[in-house]
Amino acid sequence: MKTVVISNQKGGVGKTAISVHQAHYLEEQGKSVLLLDLDPQANASKTLAAYKSGVLASALFDGTLTAIENKGGITVVEADNALMNIERAEPKLIIPAFKKTLDAVSADFDYCVIDTPPQFGMRLSCALIAADYVLSPIELDEYAIDGIVKMLQTIFGIKQKYNPELTFLGILPNRLNAHSVAQKAALEGLLAQYAQYMIPAKIGNRSSIPEALRAGVPVWKLKKSSAKEAGIEMLKAFKIIQERMGI
Q1: Origin, by domain of life (predicted)?
Q2: Which of 105, 108, 114 is nearest to 5 (CA)?
Q3: CATH homologous superfamily of domain 2-244?
Q4: pTM of the entire structure?
């Protein structure tokens, strides 16, 4: 099982939308996907309610979970309020317990996609230490750009100290307003400073994406003409990501 973490230490950048669409994309490649929702807001769990496993995400951290039933296609481990307790837990116990759980279920799934909370803490640390890949969506506003250095420091700090096999897939511009001069300038600045980390694709700020999430389907399957461009952008991005994963 290959594990992909969707991470950014800022809320509102579209991590859940990317996580859910990544799971759908891999499923359509004929892969079995385990999606872990580590954010107590539980947006990914709500969007993919039809795929719930019956396992709560807080159970991933106690070291006793030995199996998760593969439902076929996508299987979701649902976020719960007890996840907040993980932030106060002992790292020496929680980190190996989470990794032990993923190792125990790895033979039953092809991929694991992890939707993470919008701040650094134990849940994000556990996910990055156990992962093979990490992808960072970013919204092109002033505060998100300011947070890039912190985000990169976190990812490469984890890679250096705890998980040398962690591969940074890159930064994915998300919710781009094509008519915003400020966002275009921010994108140009990103390309100038972080070209080596940028994914050469972008996803626009389109109403069809949250509409697809509410319907529980990927945007490229939404039967509306307005969703066509969003679907093209999403599929282009995931094709590039797939190539970077060596698939």
Answers
A1: Bacteria
A2: 114
A3: P-loop containing nucleotide triphosphate hydrolases (3.40.50.300)
A4: 0.93
